[in-house]
């Protein structure tokens, strides 16, 4: 596959063109993030911060680590679920329930710029990391929390997962073929959006520290808030008119023709977003009568008569292969494209030109083709600087950076307060 730069576990991809590889600073260089999160929302947030140059210290329980390490799909013993959101991070494994372990957690938090967690509200304090106490010692600390349902209300202490939030936010009610078939989105979008929103809040707080005496903020969101936030015009339609949106299948809820259409061989997505596109579209498919038909004169008319219009359009489209139509529409500036499997998506020339996939090497020497982050800085895409870590892979180096000497580290390992990965320990 094109675009697979090879990187060592702790090195940037050779020739990857990342800012760090070229010697340029990334925006969050020098920022240390203590990542106490697990599963997806928090780890997705910290992966984005790592893409931007932050030093991410993933602090995991010595009793198994992040729960997603045991989630399928697997490649040998490696969880690909875990791998997908834990690039560019270090891992230290700590016994959260021991007094010495909690002292280490405190010491890490005191030296961090950002702390990210997604426990239930209040759990952080029970771990000895009360935000108010931490700020007395580290006023600049940004504390970011992701919960299931927020910090107030009857569900504040309830466990929340992505699909629950998809359902409760209304998203599933507008997804699927019809109102009788509410459908979850095929990836955990509530976790992902919550992670993105948290990363935005963290970056805003870091930017604001310079103007408010260097004090950090407490940043928070929840899966439910994220789900409601992305309702966009669907939610606004209900709030303003009282109309309850319903699913439109593969059609755009308010624009037409905009959706999936049959061609001679494959379905194609065609998006006619304005009147100029409509005029061009009618010319390309050889249907000037549609442009002249009063049922389809304006966007509102076309949406109202969507079913009739779709049938007439497909009568034209079925006479040519889908890729031929796509080429013609793209040449006219009309957004269009095929529906890919992931195999086809990764083979697409545009995806390969973006160099989205970079191959890194895990601690055990196995190669991992990994999606880079979606951000570019000064025209250069973020690189994968480090493979997702094995549990406790960086325990020793993190403790050394805290100022512990070899004897102290050995004592903590022997007492089971911290855990090193076997491969890394053998190298020490």
UniProtKB/TrEMBL annotation:
One of its GO terms (molecular function) is transferase activity. The keyword Transferase applies. It comes from the Bacteria. Keywords: Transferase. Pfam families: CoA_transf_3 (PF02515). InterPro entries: CoA-transferase_III_domain, CoA-Trfase_fam_III, CoA-Trfase_III_dom3_sf, CoA-Trfase_III_dom_1_sf. PANTHER family: SUCCINATE--HYDROXYMETHYLGLUTARATE COA-TRANSFERASE. This is CaiB/BaiF CoA transferase family protein. It comes from Citricoccus parietis.
